[in-house]
User: What shape does this take?
Amino acid sequence: MQTDKSGRPGLERVPTGLPGLDTILRGGFLRGGIFIVEGSPGAGKTILGNQICFHHVAAGGRALYVTLLAENHARMLLHIGQLGFFEEEVIPHRLYYISAFRVLEEEGLAALLHLLRREVQARSANFLILDGISAIEEAAPSTREFKKFIHELQAHAAITDCTMLLLAGTSQTATEHTLVDGVVELQSKLYGRRAERVLQVHKLRGSGYLRGEHSFRITSDGIEVYPRTEAVLAHPSVADKITGPPASIGVAQLDRIMGGGFPQHSTALLIGPPGIGKTTLGLHFLSECNRDSPGVFFGFYETPATIRDKANVLGLPLGPLIDEGHVEVIWQSTAEGLLDATCDQLVAAVKRRGVRRLFIDGLQGFDKLAPERDRLGHIFSAFSSEFRGRGISTLYTSEAELIGPVMGMPFSGLALQGVSCIAEIILLMRYVELRSQLHRMISVLKVRDAEINSALHKFTITGKGIVIEPDWASAEEILGEATLQRRAARLGHGSTHPARQ
Amino acid sequence: MALILVVDDEFSVAEVLQSVLADSGHEVITAVNGRQALERLGERRPDLVLLDFMMPIMDGPALLRAMKRDPAYHDIPAVIMSSLPKRVVAQAAGGLFSAILRKPFKLAAVIETVETVLNRHN
Assistant: This one.
């Protein structure tokens, strides 16, 4: 038996085998406890119950699944059998299915309790699912008798060290909630026409847990739970310790403007209109990766193959870096997905690869996945702390409509707002329209706690990637001409082009 | 017409089998587990036992073994029903049954299996 620091018996956990749910429960259900999993029909209770059973027996335990509804085991197993966690070999020796419906119907609560006690002992089960406790509530002659039944079952769970999950429909009265050790609710929520499944722990006696609603989905492998990112990362897993020289951005001229590159472990935001070269700058940034400084490209719009081709065309060595395992390109569609699953995928890749350079292309991708967009600020703040602690230099890009000579910062997107608050560095890319040409400009808008030269610099995209003019002279010339042209157009003087005057 | 004992803890399965077999002209009695089935056997000797594999109190293989040990019942043909693979059922129940019905089953399969086993033993 585990003990705590004072030598008292500790609270042993029974992992559910669902990594996200175990994170929420801080390791799993408490051994020998009795818990309710509730939700409306189709919420996923039966799949969850079965999945936990299969995990439990795979880990060496024994489980008993008892149905109280007139549900057909054969059909249930036929459906469960399609899911990845199903292992036919464990039935009946380690996992056993019985129906107690008729015992309950014909003989009542006392007979049911006797049956459960007997079967748990006979099967040496240390995990029990009781599917359909509403049937018990209905069969109980009074609320008092029902409470008594739960109470006795709880005593039996504790004394036999058998952890019990009671699967129930969504309860209005919830009298049983006060009696059990924990309550987990499964729900489906609608956001416009899009439905999202959420899980919430309402109670977990003797233990902390991650509060609030957490997303989950049912896949061909069973249920996958994604705890709220901002809750999981509320406290950075690694303490912030900033050392070392600036991280080169991969464009020598930009490094020079920035005083050597991005400060170590910083968060940078690159804002600019479509097609101006944001992704290209990100490819430069990742082209500085190596064995000691691996990187991840996390994007929403371009597939890994497209990114590799793009780098090849620009003469950037991303392809070989991907082949050598120093850079990973991850693409997440925004068509249908869960925000927290996407965040989990990103954080998992960062941890798995020991990433030092992270390029996140397209903050709007997070916007599109977020049904509750006000969460984004909290998520990006948590990302920032976690990534900084892990020694990662992060570069985000965000779309903005920036055409013309007047500085406009349309911080309308919530994702953009979220990152701009936590970004130590903000870079701005914009077009300047002069006659029939769109000229590209870049400037450093913000470097936290540092003197900056925010002058606009003209840049071009060549066969060798981004080339930035060494000073601001050509940018000023273009902006000056553009201003004159616009003024002349306003006064009706026509073109300011020297050849046409 | 035969007397058939249906042994299944699942209410819905027992109900359906009772109706279907009655429609085919058989008389049906039911039990919810192996132990109750032994009580039913003591009351009336059936021509066939149709039993589930996984049940509380006394499961299908245990009931078959008990029947084989008792000279009064050892020659009663039995059809075992399960959603588990036939090899798992065969391994657990040895050669103590006449046929296996894989759940979920179709009506035609039930009737055909029951009639085949009854004819073989008549």
Notes: Chain A touches chain B through 25 residues (CB under 8 Å). The first strand of chain A starts at residue 13 and ends at 14.
